[in-house]
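User: Hi! I'm working on a homework problem where we have to compare a predicted structure to a textbook description. Could you give me the structure for the chain below?
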Amino acid sequence: MMKSWLIFTKAFMLFRLIMKACILEKQSKIEERPLRLANVPSPCPANEEIRVKVQACGICRTDIHIVEGDLPFKKSPLVLGHEIVGVVDKTGKGVKNFRRGDPVGISWLHSTCMKCKYCLKGKDNYCPDFQCTGWDVDGGFAEYVTSKEDFALSLKGINMEPEDMAPLMCPGIAGYCALKLTEAERGDKLGLFGFGPTAYYVLMAANYLGIEAYVSIRSSIHKKEARRNRKIKEPDFFLLFFPLFISLQLLYKFNFLYYFILNGAIFLCKISYFCNLLRPVYLH
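Assistant: Happy to help. Predicted structure tokens:
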């Protein structure tokens, strides 16, 4: 009886030390299915780190860039994924702000030096020692992932499903930062070039804040998605069918280019005056 109990205990402990993860060992085209489901050691949180039991992890275009070799391979095998939502499973020594069971999010920003001129100014993404989740270190395409406490995001009090919150960890954050840079306020007009996940969240925030949103886009699929997700009445929302290079030339000519979102991903443009100069195409 005692022997059977010892065997069971050892098996249970071994089970806790192993997790399932999708790993990338060699970069290749997605069509070649380079990701492989494997049993790998479960990560153990170091000092001031937390371990998170993953509930959902979104897929980002950056993941595909890493898989296909558009971005250099930094470690092998690699667990991708940086749009992570889960609950704290274990804490390392020195962790102060998280407890076991706390809901948490993990983004692309794994860590920075926290002492260079960029970090001290709150511009962590410019840090020369920037470490990326799912690229420099293993990410969320797994059952467990570790994160430094200072870079984990508390999700307490947010009443959303994990799969709905996961994309907020990448395009949601990027969209919020871009929108904040414009300093747009209620009644202002906001221009977006392209309509991807980032632009989707910018549009939602703009609608909520009472900012008029304008989208320059040619994709019929994205046009339908933009129309479907708008939450304001006609004719406050327009699609402007200008080729990108013409739009940029007009913005430059009238000197109203501050920030802009290019292909719904990176930048943002405040066009409080510029939009009044254009003849919009109404959505019907």
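For your comparison, note the following. Residues 231-246, 248-284 have pLDDT under 50 and may be disordered. The first strand starts at residue 18 and ends at 24. Good luck with the assignment!
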